[in-house]
Structure formats: structure tokens, C-alpha cells
Amino acid sequence: MAPFLINICGSAINAIVNNSLLDYGGDDAIASVVVFNRYVTVFIFVVIGICQGMQPIVGYNYGSGRYQRLFKTFWLAAASGVVITSLGSIIGALNPRAIAAMFMQDESQIECAVNCIRITTISFWMVGFQVVSTNFFQALGMAGKAMFLSLSRQIIFMTTAVYPATFLRSRRRVELLPHQRRAGHDSDRDNARRTDSKDKAGIPS
Fold it and tell me: Residues of 61-100 as b/e, b for ≥16 C-beta within 10 angstroms?
């Protein structure tokens, strides 16, 4: 039941994020997030491999009551996961253009992907600890805690960040709209004056 709910919630969050990206960033923003997801998947798979090696050791020590070895295994796996995701954050922050160029050719899309990778890799280093913690509780048979930790990143943190950000962005666009209209009217008025001056002077436009 827990993996089913996690997949359902993950699909719902992806739909919300993609709609927001399409409204405020267009196709380039969606393509940039796809590039980021492909990049970080490499490091996530390494962390998942660490978790798969941790789970039988944690489960055995939990069942036999060897809690010291249990927590030692957990902290070793958590530290390894954080090192892996931190490495991904550092590489993404230092060389985002090379990462984007592996998946894109259009320069405007690459520029958008560079900004996306630089911003999103700021907090990616913490994902390693979250993934290890989720698998730790799952190995102990605590499905409720594992599901809460897995969904907290997608529902609690991501959703609460997406909606305020889109609201502020839309509010900023509404505030800029009168200024843009005024600037457009001023530009039209200047063009009309130039045309009248050329007509009076007999200069063909």
C-alpha cells in the first residue's frame, strides 16, 4: 500500500509542477526540469543501491536486538548517501552547462537548463539522507514512518514551495502589466510623432 500511495502522490505532484512550469516558463522550463531529473537519477540510483545493501543488515540486527550495530549501519549508509548526493550537487553547481549540453542543442534551452540545475542542486545534497531514512524505516517494518518521510519531500515541502512561488510570480506579472502597457502607449505615441514629422518635412517613410 505504501509504494502505491507514494507513486500516486508522486504523479500528482509532477502534474502540478509541470502545469506551473508550462504557465510561467513554457516548454523550455519543462525540458530543463527533465534534464535535471535525468542528471540526479544517476546519483539517486547509487544511493538506492546503498539502501538495498543496508536493509538486510538492519533487519537482521533489529530482529536480534543488536541495536548498536543497527544504528552504526544506518549512520554509515546515511553518511554515504549524503556524500553521493553532495557530489552531485557540487558537480551540478560548478558545471551545469556541460550537463545541459549533453541533452540539449538549442542555446535558449541550455541557458534555461543551466539556471534550473544551479538552483535545484542547492538542496539536492540533503536527498541522500532522506532516501536512506525512508529505506531504514521500511526495513524495520515501519511502513507509516517510511511513507511519511517519502511523501514529506513531495507533498509538504514541494507543494508549499510551488504555490507561493507561482502566486508571487503571477502577482509580479499583474504589477508589471500597467507599466508595460504605459510603455507600449508611449512608444506608439513617439512613432506617431516621428511619422507626422516626416510627412510634414516631405521625407518618405
Answer: bbeeeeeeebeebbeebbebbbebbbebbebbbeebeebb
Segment 76-92, tens digit of pLDDT = 999 999 999 999 999 99
* 117 to 25, 32, 39, 172: CA distances (angstroms): 15, 8, 9, 24
Q: How many CB atoms lie within 10 A of CB 108?
A: 9
At position 88, the amino acid (one-letter code) is G
The pLDDT of residue 200 is above 90 = no
Closest CA to 108 of 22, 19, 27: 27
In which residue are the cell numbers 557530489 written? 87
In Å, the largest CA–CA distance within the chain is 100
- Which of residues 187 and 123 earns the better pLDDT score? 123
d(CA 105, CA 79): 37
pTM of the model: 0.70
Cβ atoms of 149 and 137 closer than 8 Å? yes
Q: What is the pLDDT of residues 41-53, one digit of tens each?
A: 999 999 999 999 9
Per the listing, cell 531514512 goes with: 133
Contact 116, 33 (CB under 8 A): yes
Report helix, strand or coil for 95: coil
